[in-house]
Amino acid sequence: METTTFLDKLAQQIVTHHNFDFSSIAIVLPNKRARLFLLESFKKISNKTFFAPEIISIEDLITSISKINVLTSIELLFEFYEVYKKITPKTEQQDFEQFSNWAKMLLQDFNETDRYLLKPQHVFNYLKDIDDINHWSVKTEDRSTLIENYITFWDQLPVYYNHLTKHLTANRTGYQGMAYRKAVEQLDDFIDSNHDKLYYFAGFNALNQAEEQIIQKLLKNNQAKIFWDTDAVFLNDMDHGAGYFARRIKQNWSYYKTHPYEWIVDEFKHKKNIEIISTPKSVGQAKIVGTVIEELQRTNENLQKTAIVLSEENLLIPVLYALPNTVTSLNVTMNYDSKSNPVQLFFAKWFKMQANALSRRKSKAVFYHKEVLDVLSHPLIEHLAQTKEIVSEINKRNLSFFDLGKLDFITSENKFLNLITKPWNNDVLEIIERIEQIVFSIRDHLRANNDDISLTFLYTFHQVMNQIKNYQLKYGVIDTVQQLQTIYKQVADIAEVSFEGEPLEGLQVMGVLESRVLDFDNVIVTSLNEGKFPAGKSNNSFIPYDVKMELGLPTFKEKDAIYTYHFYHLLLRAKNVYLLYNSDSEGLDAGEKSRFITQLILDRQNNHTVKVNNYFAKSPETINEPLVIEKSELLQSRLKEIATNKGFSPSAIGNYMRDPIQFYMQRILGIREVEEVEENIALNTLGTIIHGALEYLYTPFVGQKLTVEMVNEMIERHELTVAEQFHLNYSDNADKQGKNLLAFEVAKRNVHHFLMLEKELLQAGDVVEIIGLEQNLETVLSDERLPYPVKLSGIADRIEIRNNVLRIIDYKTGKVDLNQVQIKEINDITTDLKFEKAIQLLLYGFMYQKETSLPIQAGIYSFKNRKSGYLIFGLKQDKIVQEFITNELLIDFKTELVRLLNEILNPEIAFEEKID
């Protein structure tokens, strides 16, 4: 049986009285959202064409009575600032940022004062008297400047109010409260000019004083009818918050002494399936929403009469992503907090990048890499600006601070990228014009990709910038980029993204306020935590709680009652209800479960089935199982390709010994760490600088016998060489400051000490000839024990003939000890990672053995263990160390190497992760 909604009942009532002749009536609803639903209810009743009645919101009615154009919160803030500057001496004026911090709150108090028809002078004098009492003990002559300024502020409140309302009235504009007050004042004239019109008020709950007076006067003049949607359960329970306003109105309005209260319904106690679901984190709720929708689709494919009500606006995007692909009809109607608007967040980053660059500028703009990458990597423009190349180049060249205009790949061909990267000047209107161009480019891109959600976000941002532009054109008071940025921050925070759609088909996604008057069979409510739903105590007002109580202004108690009504009205005619809340007690989005949930459980109706479920992520039986990669035919083919073409290097073999999965990821799949800008020199970059400096210094002397004079020449040039390598390998525009200066000094010291050791050994009689620097070594290992020949390759930092012995030297910036390069036996050397350095040296000897007839040594020079000098590989037996890599030793090593290579290539042995 189909549920008769409140709007269905209302439509039937009106048709019964007017028989589709709606020319003399107007229907007033709490919001515009319900208009289409009400029209649909009228269409259900009739099978013929008819003229629809006039359906307006309460705000529309107030505007028509008051004839005041209600300004947006942003426009109002701008107008108030102009009034403030006119009445405040220039020496005492605050900038817009300081002003807006208190003005937004004050405007809210002005609004409440007018909506509740209080006498402004009385309210402000009351506040000033309270403030005077608070400082009664301080003599006038003893008051500090701070206290004096504080008291002056309270003195100024009536001045601000009077001048602002006078200024707005002159322009026939105002804020909502002004319109309400004016509407009450002009109500008699309105009644006279509309005496033949009947107003139907429907679906209201909480009314302010102005609304109560207007509706009661229309009722008294028989020019109105009003229909509530109050359930008997809430009305008759004197402690139930959902009936708080209904009980007060029913008791206090004189109209109800002679007329019945319409309508008291009996819906809440009917059969309902209520499922209360707790899960950690907000994203967990989004996932559960997707699961619930999937279940509901099994019985209701197009999800008619199903609503997702988000009490936390930030959940909108996660929920949309969590919905199943089978949801074909979807309508989002809600206001979204502008602070979470992804378009606004992008432009906030762009503002920061450009403004900070401008503040650093002397003759040119200097951009900071993190700010630039935040902008260029943003998904909103990443594809449009084609930023992949520029991001890669910034990371590759380690550009910390740089002039964007000098980067080669920013060309005039990519106009959008130029709009983003061209440095700002101090022309505010030029900046706003450029923002407009960026917005239009993004708009075209989003339209081409049918991204309606992002287009809505973009439209809201564009509205904000238009208002700032109009303000600047009208008053011309934004003089600097800093002021523009400040004003943007302030106004963007109070702008809301409004989603609107055609709500007659499919799944409805809405906020709490958008659900007013509407009824659904299936309701999913998220974020039912204290502080979210209900919103909890907040006092965004200069008027203290006790003063509000005395003056009859709403406090958090009334706010709680409003939330209670909205919550229970959502459940009123629903058949299936899913209530989700965050069970996590820690973190930013944590909170206690809502009192509404507790109330439903403790005060359960007889026909309500309430189930409580807790959803937690399943913990695996084993916390960390090792990753295993079986060697498929494709993987075997890739291994063979590497083994026969590129070859295995000493570092690759060490990689496999350390962790086969790391070897698989890096050497087979080619996955490398993401390149990032190093603000401070990393250890591997420091090593590259030292290697590069030594190669550059020694290159002129390759093939010659070294002399002390040659080394002295290198010592003289080493500082300049290290500096050149610093700029070449780290950044060509980096300043050597802080940690980078320390790293630079370390590199110079290491090179200097190495050269001094070289000089000492030459003076001690060593005869040295450099025969290779950064030399490629390779050989093919053919052995019947291997499935196919395997290429071995590597790069030796230095190859020399020292005292008729060929030596292969590897530089290490890390610390290496002698026990890491000396072994006691060759057997099983490849099974223990501690022999990694020794294996590397043996591999060098193995690859070079056919290139020389001289005895071979291989060693490491550790810059962090320079006192030990050259650490030469050795086989230590009976206290005698054999430092030469002999053919006999290499034959034994070859057996060990073949065993390790067979393990790498064997299709039956999977790559398995090593877990410490």
Automatic annotation (TrEMBL):
InterPro entries, A to Z: P-loop_NTPase, PDDEXK-like_dom_sf, PDDEXK_AddAB-type
Segments forming domain PD-(D/E)XK endonuclease-like: 648-913
Gene3D superfamilies recorded: 3.90.320.10
Pfam families: PDDEXK_1
Protein name as annotated: PD-(D/E)XK nuclease superfamily protein
